[in-house]
Design brief:
The complex is a heterotrimer of chains A (about 325), B (about 350) and C (about 270). Chain A contains 15 helices and two strands. Chain A is mainly α. Chain A has a domain of about 180 residues: MetI-like (MetI-like fold), CATH 1.10.3720. A two-stranded antiparallel ribbon of chain A has the order 1-2. In chain A, helix 1 packs antiparallel against helix 14 and helix 8 packs antiparallel against helix 11. In chain B, a hairpin with a 3-residue loop joins strand 4 and strand 5. Chain B has two domains: about 70 residues, no CATH class; about 210 residues, MetI-like fold. Chain B is built from 13 helices and five strands. Chain B is of the alpha+beta class and about 350 residues long. With about 270 residues, chain C is an alpha/beta fold. Chain C has one domain: 3-Layer(aba) Sandwich (Rossmann fold). Chain C is about 30% helix and about 25% strand. Chain C has nine helices and ten strands. Chain C has a six-stranded mixed β-sheet, with helices on both faces. A four-stranded antiparallel β-sheet of chain C has the order 2-1-4-5. In chain C, a hairpin with a 2-residue loop joins strand 4 and strand 5. The longest helix of chain C has 14 residues. Chain C starts with a strand and ends in a 15-residue tail after the last helix. Classes of the chains: A mainly alpha (about 325), B alpha+beta (about 350), C alpha/beta (about 270). The interface between A and B is large, with 51 and 42 residues.
């Protein structure tokens, strides 16, 4: 338990550090943002004065940081100038869309990679293994952007799937099942890109972890006892190989918000990625900070969850 | 000493050849990358023929003049009446190899008309030339950024591991923090706060520095590990026994030990950073037009019309693949160690 | 005989942190008093963990003791600055236990031997080469290995090279910390003979180094040394001339060490003192 408490404290400290770093962005950015905004005719002078006072820009850095931290604690992440509304609800919607995509993709990716990895480790050296390793190697060499654009081009040429977006126009009027189907069709391409992109690394790690445990003494002993191969693999070898895999899973969780930026932009999926990009181009300061912080939160949380799972799964850590 | 495996050497030669090919862009590319031809936007790749429509064989390869098909505004067809023979070692637009050596000789070209091996883009610029020149920018960005990361990482990690104490603790906490933040988002975040509309050179340097500086943490940790273990070695203690200064020990004993770590990290970081530059440029945050980079060459694909009609605009992505293959294979071959082929005593 | 190097009330403590956060203080050296005369042959014996290596490292000024003093030629070393120490260090040289890590694996034999001269003198490259060859001959290595990589030598060769390096600056005290333990028994005997040669009584006292051999092997100690010092748990429990220690051990630790000898035969095979 103390171990978990320590890891939690560690995570909290990391997050605190992240808030400092992101806050420093604003302080160190060349050029006063409010100067730039003053040139923007869409923002009235009164709004500017109110914002300036609200954000205490005349107070020293430390005070501003603490004020910002306080508002963070309340769930406020500042104000979007482009959208003329608080940042948090905007981010929340976009984050939800991203999570919808990434959670599905991650689950799918693992569901495909696990059996492939186990099978590959089991038939080490035979044609199955060679095929899987070969395809993984090819996928690994193709950079993400090439994979995403390539699949998009294919999809557009064959017109099998919608060209982008999350839902079809007018889908709100459809019954639930039809809406779900519509969503699934739209999700197929971005999810497919993410799943394919994740396969090489996942399969390789799973395969090597399982291959290592298969060779170990206790598995051979179980084999000698006549335990059927399938049960052997899934109930004996895999749990022992779980240690590195759980860390890997933790990374997958951590990347839930941040790993899909490019794919979302390319397939026009209305998630956090395109929103962040838009904000950068529009110089929408607080949206950018909010986005970075939110994804940092997920990364740190993902690692912590991995620590918890590891603690629960691996008795060796508990007795350390 | 490290690079003794046949596989590693072969991969290195392969990579050097690829890079040389791109470096010689001035010579190999028939056209200037920013030279526009507004009469031929989005022309498809020209097919090279040896046999003409009448069935006659020509030793010198040729292409047909492309003209817009009647009734459409973007469909091209070959005008079988006009043959444009390819000439080799022609004089063309002037260029500077490696930015220094001026020249006007090109590997191939035509006297009249134009040969676009890979087609043209929306402004009629030759894609083949743009891919070569763009490759120079993207590859250079990746290499320079990796150098920045490795330089900072070695310096900080080496000092941290060697001197230990408070410096070490602080540096390691900082590194952990940097690694805890999502890299791409951080990259975008930092890029966001720097001026967006700058000239190509400034943009290039900004991209290189930002990508490189953000990636200091992993190499720093690895170099720190090496420094930490090297500092405890008997030969370092012996050198201390002879009155060696810290500087001497770092230069003579510790840093040489980091060589293999640095090389392996370089092979891993370079493709990552090339991809980072390409992603940034693709999204409009990197190298601006008209300077070509593989990233902004691909950015036209964000328009549906381009995506569906002009498949050759995807080719810059294909051009990236052999480089990635080379670097990834090299990094895994380096990590296998020298035991691969030779038996070392 | 003039006392060259001495330790008075030497204490060295290490703090180790237990997993639960409790700090424990380990006394590696507990009020050690030792005097090393010029040109002496001393062996320090004890079981593992008795503090022998810590003593060696402190005597060689590679670590600062927690308390107590170390004197070299009547100078107190413990309160010298780094620069002042720099001139004293070459006089007290340490040869380490593990021949495998004693040298930078990228160095050639010449580079290994040159290093002390590069750091402490202004000899030219030819001079260094000449002296390196002399040193090689002195420790019984072939002249022509100067260009070989230090990693290519055998264990025995490495220890000879380590001794050669230690002798490079003509130290007055040479300390060998379990330097023979990693070698084959026959090679151990050869090196022991080398040590006897280096401290041969025929060599004038002014240039003859004092050799301190640290070992857990009482047989080896008796073969080489004139005086034996027995350590246990950071303290010196017994010391005296070799015949007395071997023939009439008083302390339990000494007796235990004696009992560990290979064949229990009387330890009297030793080259006659010159």
């Amino acid at each position: 338990m103390r171990y978990l408490a320590r890891r939690f404290l560690h995570a909290v400290l990391l997050l605190a550090g992240a808030t400092v770093v992101t806050f420093l962005f604003t302080a160190l950015a060349p050029g006063n943002y409010f100067d730039e905004m003053r040139l923007n005719p869409q923002i009235s002078r009164e709004t500017l004065t109110a914002l300036k006072a609200h954000y205490d820009l005349d107070k020293p850095l430390g005070v501003r940081y603490l004020v910002w931290l306080k508002s963070l604690a309340h769930g406020e992440m500042g104000y979007s100038f482009a959208y003329n509304s608080p940042v948090s609800p905007l981010l929340a919607v976009r984050a939800r869309n991203t999570l919808l995509l990434t959670i599905t993709s991650t689950l799918l990716a693992w569901c495909i990679a696990l059996p492939l990895g186990v099978w590959s480790a089991e038939c080490s050296g035979r044609w199955v293994d060679r095929l899987v390793t070969g395809v993984s190697a090819v996928l690994l060499v193709i950079p993400d952007i090439a994979l995403a654009l390539g699949l998009l081009t294919i999809s557009v040429h064959t017109r099998w799937l919608p060209a982008g977006g999350m839902v079809s126009i007018g889908s709100e009027t459809l019954p639930f099942a039809a809406r779900l189907w519509d969503l699934a069709r739209h999700m197929l391409l971005p999810a497919g890109i993410l799943v394919l992109g994740a396969q090489p690394l996942l399969v390789r790690h799973i395969r090597s972890a399982v291959a290592e445990t298969i060779g170990e003494g206790f598995v051979r002993a179980a084999e000698a006892h006549g335990i059927p191969r399938g049960r052997l693999l899934w109930r004996y070898a895999l749990p022992a190989a779980a240690n590195p895999l759980i860390s890997l899973f933790g990374f997958s969780i951590g990347a839930l918000l941040s790993g899909s930026l490019l794919v979302e932009v390319v397939t026009s999926w209305p998630g956090l990625g395109p929103f962040l990009l838009e904000a950068i181009l529009a110089r929408d300061l607080y949206v950018v900070i909010g986005g970075v912080l939110l994804s940092a939160l997920f990364l740190v949380a993902g690692n912590f969850i991995a620590d918890v799972l590891l603690f629960w799964a691996d008795p060796r850590i508990r007795t350390e | 000493m490290k690079i003794t495996s046949h596989k590693t050497v072969a991969l290195l030669i392969f990579l050097i050849f690829l890079h040389a090919f791109v470096l010689a862009a001035g010579f190999i590319a028939p056209y200037d990358p920013v030279q526009q031809d507004r009469d031929r936007p989005y022309a498809p790749p020209a097919a090279i023929h040896f046999v003409d429509a009448a069935g006659k064989f020509h030793v010198r390869p040729f292409v047909y003049q492309q003209r817009v098909r009647e009734g459409s505004f973007d469909q091209y067809e070959d005008d079988q009446a006009t043959r444009i023979p390819l000439k080799f070692f022609v004089t063309g637009a002037s260029y500077r190899l490696l930015g220094v050596i001026p020249g006007t000789l090109h590997l191939f070209g035509t006297e009249e008309g134009s040969v676009n091996l890979l087609g043209t883009d929306g402004y009629g610029r030759d894609l083949f030339s743009r891919i070569l020149y763009g490759g120079q920018i993207s590859l250079l960005a990746g290499l320079l950024a990796a150098s920045v990361s490795l330089l900072i990482g070695t310096f900080v990690g080496g000092a941290s591991g060697y001197f230990g104490g408070w410096t070490d603790s602080i540096v390691m906490r900082l590194a952990e923090l940097c690694l805890a933040l999502p890299w791409l988002y951080l990259l975008f975040g930092v890029r966001a706060f720097l001026p967006l509309l700058v000239n190509p050179l400034k943009a290039f340097l900004t991209v290189v520095v930002v990508i490189g500086a953000l990636g200091w943490a992993r190499p720093a940790r690895l170099v720190r590990g090496v420094a930490l273990s090297a500092k405890e070695r008997d030969f370092v203690r012996a050198a201390k026994g002879f009155g060696a200064s810290h500087f001497y020990i770092l230069c003579r004993h510790v840093l040489p030990q980091t060589r293999s770590v640095i090389l392996t990290q370089a092979a891993i970081l370079i493709p990552q950073y090339i991809l980072a530059e390409v992603t940034l440029s693709f999204l409009g945050l990197g190298i601006p037009e008209p300077t070509p980079s593989w990233g902004n060459l691909l950015s036209s694909l964000q328009q549906y019309s381009v995506l569906s009609s002009y498949w050759w605009m995807y080719l810059p992505a294909v051009a990236m693949v052999p480089f990635f293959f080379g670097y990834l294979a090299l990094s895994s071959s380096l990590q296998d160690g020298p035991r691969a082929d030779k038996i070392e005593s | 005989m003039e006392v060259l190097l001495s330790a008075e009330n030497l204490v060295k403590e290490y703090s180790s942190r237990h997993f639960s956060g409790v700090k424990a203080l380990v006394r590696a050296l507990d009020r050690v008093n030792l005097a090393i005369p010029r040109g002496a042959r001393i062996a320090i014996v004890g079981a593992s963990g008795s503090g022998k290596s810590t003593l060696a490292v402190c005597l060689a000024c590679l670590e600062k003791p927690s308390s107590g003093t170390i004197r070299f030629q009547n100078h107190e070393l413990t309160c010298l600055s780094v620069d002042e120490l720099r001139s004293i260090r070459p006089q007290i040289q340490l040869v380490f236990q593990d021949p495998a890590t004693a040298f930078n694996p990228n160095f050639t034999v010449l580079e290994v031997l040159e290093e002390p001269w590069i750091l402490q003198t202004k000899m030219s490259a030819e001079e260094r080469r000449e002296r390196a060859t002399e040193l090689l001959v002195r420790v019984g290595l072939a002249r022509n290995i100067l260009g070989r990589g230090s990693a290519d030598l055998s264990g025995g060769q490495r220890q000879r090279l380590a001794i050669a390096r230690a002798l490079a600056l003509k130290p007055k005290v040479l300390i060998l910390d379990e330097a023979l333990s990693a070698l084959d028994y026959s090679v151990q005997a050869q090196i022991a003979n080398l040590l006897l040669d280096l401290s041969d009584r025929a060599i004038p006292l002014a240039v003859r180094p004092a050799i301190v051999l640290i070992t857990h092997d009482l047989v080896m100690a008796a073969r080489f040394a004139d005086e034996i010092v027995v350590m246990q748990s950071g303290r010196i429990v017994e010391n005296g001339p070799v015949q007395k220690i071997v023939g009439n051990p008083e302390h339990a630790a000494t007796q235990a060490l004696l009992a560990c000898t290979m064949n229990g035969a009387p330890i009297s095979e030793k080259r006659p003192a010159v």
